[in-house]
Amino acid sequence: MKRTKEQEFIRKYNRAYGKAIGAERKKRKLGLEKLSSGIMSRTKLEMVEKGMAQWTKMEGDTLMLRMGIPAEYFEAMASGEDLERWRKREDICLLVPGLPEEAAAAIDDYRRKYKKREPLEEQFLLKAEVILMLERQRTAGGEAPEVILDTATQAVNCTVPDGWEQNPGALCLSPGELDAVLLVSAALFENGCKEEAWQLWQAVWDYPGQHGWKERAMTMILPQTAVLGIRMAAALAEHGEPDGRDTAMGSMAASMREAGPPRKEQEARSSGNGQETGLLRKGQEALELLRRNGCHCYVLPLLDCLCECDASLFAAPEYLEQVKAFRKMFLDIYAWFGYPGYRIWQGISVDNTRDAGMTLKMLRKFDGKSREKAVYDGDELVMSPRQLERIEKGLHKPSYENYDKLVKQYGKFGGWNMPLLETESLEVLEQRQLISTLMECERWDLVEWEIQKFRNRVTPAFPKVRQELLFFDAILKQKKGGDLQESLEMLLEALRCTVPDFERKDMKWWVYQREEIMIVSNIGSFYRKLGRLDEAKKWLEAVLFSIDQNSYRTGIYHYGFDIAFECYDNYLGDICCLDNTVKMNEYMILKSLLLFRINGIHNLFYHIAWNAYEIAEKKPEEYASLRPVWEKAFQISKLMAEFMSDSSTKAFLSKRESKYLS
Q1: HSE (CB half, 13 Å, CA atoms) of 514?
Q2: Eight-class DSSP state of 260
Q3: How far apart are the first and last CA of the chain?
Q4: φ and ψ of 173, to 5 deg
Q5: Are 294 and 644 in contact (CB under 8 A)?
Q6: What are phi and psi of 560, to 5 degrees?
Q7: pLDDT value, residue 467
Q8: Could you give the CA distance from residue 451 to residue 479 in angstroms, rounded to a whole number?
Q9: Confidence band for 546, pLDDT divided at 50, 70 and 90
Q10: What does the alpha-carbon distance between residue 39 and residue 510 come to, in Å, rounded to a whole number?
């Protein structure tokens, strides 16, 4: 293959990201000042939209999320320090609220280590402290309620302009900022200001719908909002009707205390301030939102709340039994892996982010260059070898310009944020995401229909678009029973669109982007199905090595890693090398739990069941210890497929139930 030329990439990726922000901002009739307020200056946002400014991952994600756009449509580069800060914030998330002393120490350590912090970072720390204060207040007493309220208000004020209390809906707020407003609502309730608490709560609940957010962004705020509303209503119900000025909260309490009139009449009933009182229905709505999007953000607290409600309050009484089954399933999963089901979540994720320094190191090794040669881009010396070494170790941050000059020599393009395709259209990126989701669920009739619509909206001359279309065609051909070798050739052609001269390179050092991970995983799988196991091993181990390298600084695996491991697990089964497969799948599940989305986790549990059963068949002496493993894993897999509403997997598992649960 000829080296990919820069002119093929007609749009600079970082500029496309900025243009996408600008286009969406104008579509929503938002001013520069309104969108950027509290995060960056108006001038800087203008430069971001023109592709002229470098920004942090936290800033870029928040700009998108303020418009309800999930940042998963874009892949990003970040510096080693940015990712280290994310990792330390994630450690805090895993400690709050369950381990308050350790959490408080981690918060203090963060403040000591990073004296200079973005407003969004300080907001995160204050929110964590408020949650710890509220937890202490509920269990053993602690700070005075007014101190909690003051700290919660400080958190909002980090990024939100004065006067936000009057009308939060008029502002541009991200899920993380709405989290802060929600904590003010909780603090107001603790201070006895119940009507004000309800009004803020209602503003947070209504915000995503009023502002036309995408569902994936809604999952980051509505579940915890539903939890707080149900808990506040339950507290009022426990203590009886509040006084007359608290009519809104009184109506909520009543709706939780008694079944009330038929459903239609209930839906029509409003509280004194015109807000609906169906807290339980909002909880169900939040749960169904998580199910549709394969997320587990705050799912356990939400299931706890729903399980505490009377069965007569549900429109379908059997729904409560299903909720109880889901709750037990998540408790079993979290206990199995020692994972804190009661945790908080950051407002951003890094499963689509790569470390700029590690990227430069891997691409240099892929091309077989020393640092002394790599710093020369063909025209000039970009930096000294010593500077490059420190960047590769994550100790220095490269400028966008220098990073861009260095990666171009490897046939890799794009700046700090890049769309998954060469497009400035968020609608096209959303449609591509829909196709991927339909493929995960094996809805092949709908997949084919959506791909045809997709073709009419994109330009096949662009490398990533051409790659995507070839990938779709190869998978569809194979699913329809087409020639497997021809499908494999299509996948190899798709990979050549973005990976230069890979036949002569060590592919384990390539920095695989999202679609490349999917393509290479399927290449390995197709080789396996063709019986060419040595080729399958080479491709699958290369992509897994690369994923491991990329996760070095955060411990988070990138989107698509579960597919790669599933394919590798199938390969190990073919060569009867099963000894470590159960542990490997357990490791992958634990990594999956660290992400918002766990949509492939039921497949990993099935692999545990299959592997444990097969090992016991070959080693009868281990039957007694392995049987509980495969039974539990199979039951979880089946229930998780139900949670995800994955009909094809449910049908597949039903046929095998007698094997694993007899």
Answers
A1: 19
A2: -
A3: 54
A4: -130, 140
A5: yes
A6: 100, -10
A7: 95
A8: 15
A9: very high
A10: 34
| Predicted confidence (pLDDT) at residue 599 exceeds the cutoff of 80 | yes
The H-assigned helical ranges of 375-441 are 385-392, 400-408, 426-440
Q: How many residues does the chain have?
A: 662
The number of beta carbons lying within 10 Å of the beta carbon of residue 549 is 18
Q: Which residue has the tokens 């260059």?
A: 369
Which pair of structure tokens corresponds to residue 260? Answer: 């009330």
Distance CA 113, CA 91 (A): 15
The span from the CA of 400 to the CA of 14, in Å, is: 9
Helix (H) or strand (E) holding 100: helix 100-113
What are the pLDDT digits (tens) for 71-91? 888 888 888 889 999 999 999
Q: What is the secondary structure of 356-390 as a DSSP string?
A: HHHHHHHHHHHTT--HHHHTB-SSSB-S-HHHHHH
Token reading at 123: 């907001």
Taken in order 12, 436, 285, 134, the sign of the CA dihedral is negative
Question: What's the distance, CA 72 to chain centroid?
Answer: 7
Whose structure tokens read 């922000």?
A: 21
DSSP 8-state secondary structure symbol assigned to residue 276: B
For residue 316, what are its two tokens?
């379908």
Q: Rounded CA gap, 565 and 519, in Å?
A: 13
pLDDT at 444: 87
Q: What angle do CA 306, 596, 115 make, to 5 degrees?
A: 115
- Asked if residue 624 lies in contact with residue 580, where contact means CB atoms within 8 angstroms, the answer is no
Tokens of 394: 């994550």
Q: In a 10 Å sphere around its CB, with 0-12 CB exposed, 13-18 middle and 19+ buried, how is residue 312 labelled? A: exposed
pTM (predicted TM-score): 0.90
Count of beta carbons in the 10 Å neighbourhood of residue 502: 18
DSSP 18-44: HHHHHHHHHHTT--HHHHHTTTS-HHH
- Report the range of poorest mean pLDDT among 80-89, 145-154, 271-280, 593-602: 271-280
Phi, psi of 40 (to 5 degrees): -155, 170
- Which amino acid type is present at position 403? Y
- DSSP-derived secondary structure letter, 40: S
Of the CA atoms within 13 Å of residue 552, those in its CB half-sphere come to: 18
Residue corresponding to tokens 């990439």 = 9
What CA–CA distance (Å, rounded) separates 15 from 570? 41
CA 662 – CA 657 distance, rounded (Å): 8
Residue 2 is classified by DSSP as: P
Are 118 and 100 spatial neighbours (Cβ–Cβ below 8 Å)?
Answer: no
Q: What is the DSSP letter of 3?
A: P
Q: DSSP of 499-528, one letter per residue?
A: STTGGGS-GGGS---HHHHHHHHHHHHHHH
- Contact in structure between 360 and 403 (CB atoms under 8 Å): yes
Per-residue exposure over 369-401, b if at least 16 CB sit within 10 Å of its own CB, e if not: eebeebbbeeeeebbeeebbebbbebebbbebe
Instruction: Quote the CA–CA distance of 221 and 428 in Å, as a whole number.
Output: 25
Q: What is the pLDDT of residues 216-273, one digit of tens each?
A: 999 999 999 999 999 999 898 877 644 333 433 333 334 343 333 333 333 333 333 3
